[in-house]
Design brief:
With 119 residues, this protein is mainly alpha-helical. It has one domain. The chain has 5 helices and no strands. The protein is globular and about 45 Å long.
Length: 119
């Protein structure tokens, strides 16, 4: 793949995410997670990359469905920030993790519970 093509793909992906982040407060973005899942499937320890790919796609769809159900429970600012962090090859799993971490930090009764302890 040529360097120009790789740069164009990266810019296109980034611009797409920035555009989607504006609508992030309203609904879960629609991403094609095939490339992310394909990479994960090929990096897996099991030899059946086709099965790994399908398992990843299924997991991402379930995660998106769950996000859709709970989307309005996350503050709009957190939704927008977490969508913006998904710049190159976004996944719903990473989006869910970001939102859940922000929620858990805010809901922590004691900030020391979430801050690393000094040794």
């Amino acid at each position: 793949m040529s360097r120009r093509l790789m740069i164009a793909i990266a810019i296109s992906s980034t611009l797409g995410v920035w555009y989607q982040s504006a609508a992030a407060a309203d609904s879960v973005p629609r991403w094609d997670v095939t490339a992310s899942c394909r990479g994960a499937a090929q990096a897996g320890y099991q030899q059946d990359t086709k099965e790994n790919l399908q398992r990843c796609l299924d997991t991402e769809q379930r995660t998106r469905d769950q996000l859709s159900k709970n989307w309005s429970t996350f503050p709009a600012e957190d939704r927008m920030r977490c969508v913006k962090t998904q710049t190159f090859s976004p996944t719903y799993s990473e989006l869910a993790t970001c939102l859940e971490m922000k929620r858990d930090i805010k809901n922590s009764a004691n900030p020391a519970d979430v801050a690393p302890q000094k040794k």
